[in-house]
Amino acid sequence: MRLILVSAASLALLAGCSNGEKTARYLIDPPTSGERVANRLGTAELRDVSLPEYASGDEVSWQSADGAVRSNTRQLWADNPQRAFTLTLARAISDLSGATVIAEPWPLAEPPRRRVEVRVEKALALADGNYRLTGRYYVSDEGAGGANQARGFDISVPLADQDPATIARAQSQAISQLARQIATLSGPGQSIRTSSTPMPRIDDIFSQPLPPLEDS
């Protein structure tokens, strides 16, 4: 009888864990503002965005009053956070500026003129009632005389509460603000001119016609 009761309890526990309706998943979906800025990037490859460990996991995280970063196994992101952040940011920059910004790997035959790298230091709903997105971004231009950018960002979005849906909306708004900053190449930092001629790529070398053979 005891074995039957234990088995029944185990089955009930498994049924509760597998109930998808008890797990909430949240999208990263930046709002469309309709704003347009000048195209300063042309074609650019966006490397996978580097996120802190707590922001790259499946669970939606927040900071509690004691300063700890907490999460709930039933409150998840709908997609891999790094993938979603990278793809969403690339699309937001493109929609805002008209530039062709594509997440790596670059799918087109013609290589990109620039490459963009974003390193996020903080992406968290803080206990002070704000969602903070901080870090640095880099834009490399390999062409001689090109302008390379090394700039920081510190974005804050007010939170009405720490509900996961509110956090997801705040993160989406923060990504929109970051997209505008990258598209306009703005933020604290500096611009560094490329002084050297770029090394030819391997595929460029082998695509050149061979010299004619000399008469023996």
Describe the structure.
The chain has 216 residues and is an alpha/beta fold. The protein has a domain of 150 residues: ABC-type transport auxiliary lipoprotein component (Rossmann fold), CATH 3.40.50. 29% of the residues lie in helices and 31% in strands. It has five helices and nine strands. Strands 5-2-6-7-8-9 form a six-stranded mixed beta sheet. Helix 3 packs across helix 4. The chain is elongated and about 55 Å long. The N and C termini lie far apart (98 Å). About 4% of the residues have low confidence.
Short synopsis of the structure:
Residues 186-216 are annotated as: Disordered. With 216 residues, this protein is of the alpha/beta class. Helix content is 29%, strand content 31%.
Low-pLDDT segments, ≥5 res: 11-18
Second rung of CATH, namely the architecture of the domain at 44-193: 3-Layer(aba) Sandwich
Rg measurement, Å: 23 Å
Class from helix and strand fractions: alpha/beta
| Percentage of residues assigned to helices | 25-40%
Give the number of helices. 5
The largest beta-sheet arranges its strands as 5-2-6-7-8-9
Task: Itemize the secondary structure elements and their pairings.
Layout: H1 2-17, E1 24-26, E2 43-46, H2 53-56, E3 59-63, E4 69-77, H3 81-97, E5 100-103, E6 114-125, E7 130-141, E8 147-158, H4 164-183, E9 189-193, H5 202-207
Parallel strand pairs: 1-4, 2-5, 2-6
Antiparallel strand pairs: 3-4, 6-7, 7-8, 8-9
